[in-house]
Design brief:
The protein is mainly β and 251 residues long. The chain is built from three helices and 13 strands. The strands form four sheets. The protein has a five-stranded mixed sheet with strand order 4-11-10-6-8, with no helix packed on it. The protein has a four-stranded antiparallel sheet with strand order 3-5-9-7, with no helix packed on it. The longest helix is centred in the last third of the chain and has 15 residues. The termini are far apart. 10% of the residues are buried.
Length: 251
């Protein structure tokens, strides 16, 4: 009598959301008696939840990224493996996948970075292996800051070669968010711009929302000195030129 023994591998690959699966596998034997085996697979239940109900990133400037964190918690009794579904363009999530032991938390970084003015109103979907997907609403708006110069024009009049004359520029931010500006004078080397000494290391705060700093920022006013009328200032400069042969340079 020859007895042949074979090994059969049975793989259990439950679909997402499966809790228990049971099947009867039957081995058909030619000219013999069929054999059956009962297979039962259990999937440990995993649960995760966002601590926040909604993520509102608020208003941001076009081209400027903004980040905010959300907290994910494992509320079940088993280790959870999760992954984030791809989001719409302009919004990224880090990390996109991970593992959480029971009763632990992790932070996800949600970033918005838009190249054009637009409104974001989307859903962040996070899938949990062996559990239900969870969702988090995300809202944000990207705008172009509205910044203007208060003065209509700057007339320096006649300036002697080698002399220097300055004019005050008042920048106004009519937006509800801070603005970052780039002043390029490479093609006009005869013109320069300077800030008060105490503000030279704090340029990012020059343009702030109106609600926080009034209507505008004036270099002289911000130094805590009395505002000087431009006509009086020009008269003073003229007097100084008469007595010293040169005009003062703004510091």
């Amino acid at each position: 009598v020859v007895v042949l023994v074979g090994v059969v591998n049975i793989t259990f690959a439950p679909a997402n959301g499966t809790v228990k699966s049971e099947e009867i596998l039957t081995l058909k034997v030619e000219d013999g008696e069929d054999r059956s085996v009962r297979c039962v697979g259990h999937v440990p239940e995993t649960k995760c939840a966002f601590i926040e109900r909604k993520l509102d990133l608020g208003v941001v400037a076009v081209g400027v990224p903004k980040e905010q964190t959300v907290t994910l918690k494992n509320t079940g009794k088993n280790t959870a493996v999760f992954y984030v579904e791809p989001t719409i363009a302009g919004i990224t999530v880090t990390p996109m996948k991970g593992r959480l032991v029971p009763d632990s938390r992790t932070e996800l970084i949600v970033s918005v970075h838009s190249a054009m003015p637009q409104t974001f109103d989307t859903i962040l979907t996070l899938n949990v292996r062996g559990g239900k997907s969870i969702k988090l609403p995300i809202a944000a708006e990207s705008i172009v800051p509205q910044v203007s110069i208060k003065e209509d024009e700057f007339d320096f009049g006649g300036v002697t070669i080698g002399d220097a004359l300055f004019k005050r520029i008042t920048l106004v931010n009519d937006s509800i968010i801070p603005a970052t500006l780039l002043l390029d004078l490479t093609e006009h080397p005869e013109f320069t711009i300077r800030m008060p000494p105490e503000r030279e290391d704090d340029l990012d705060s020059i343009l702030v929302p109106l609600s926080a700093a009034g209507n505008s920022f004036s270099p002289v006013d911000d130094m805590g000195e009395e505002p000087v009328d431009s006509r009086d200032e020009e008269d003073n400069n003229a007097d100084r030129r008469d007595s010293t042969g040169s005009s003062p340079i703004s510091s």
